[in-house]
């Protein structure tokens, strides 16, 4: 597959996620697909991907992904995308806060034979927690309000 075709698969996947109809997800994901994030999440296979999407769609009203940047080289596609919604349901044990989320996420996707085989997303979990009102806006890594008091984050 060409880089252009790989980018088109990513665009199609985002449209499918936004629609909520996940019946065609298997056309874009290899059976060995694995999703990982900087928050420690891991989902495997087509069913795992569907579970991930459903978890977020159930946790956030008006959940939507929007593509900011898309760059491809070889079998890799890098994307910068925005995830928005209102937190109205349980998210990994966090009860609804009814707060809006607008989170910028970067992702690196690896393709094999025209299908996504691996995705790793990174995002600022602290920023998400601030937006959801779970932690104070004043909390800064290394600051006095940081759970460790910053002792483990200061250079020695």
Largest sheet: 6 strands, mixed
Task: Give the tally of β-strands.
Answer: 6
CATH architecture of the largest domain: Roll
Order of helices and strands: HEEHEEEEH
Look at the structure and give the CATH class of the largest domain. Alpha Beta
Structural class: alpha+beta
What is the number of independent domains? 2
Distance from first to last alpha carbon? 48 Å
Estimated radius of gyration: 17 Å
Principal-axes geometry comes out as globular
CATH topology of the largest domain: Nuclear Transport Factor 2, Chain: A
Write down the overall mean pLDDT.
89
Strand order within the widest beta sheet: 2-1-6-5-4-3
Uncertain segments of ≥5 residues (pLDDT<50)? Answer: 148-156
Specify the number of helices: 3
Please bin the fraction of helical residues: 25-40%
Percent of residues in beta strands: 35-45%
Primary descriptors:
156 residues, alpha+beta, Nuclear Transport Factor 2, Chain: A, 2 domains, 6 strands, 38% strand, globular, disordered C terminus
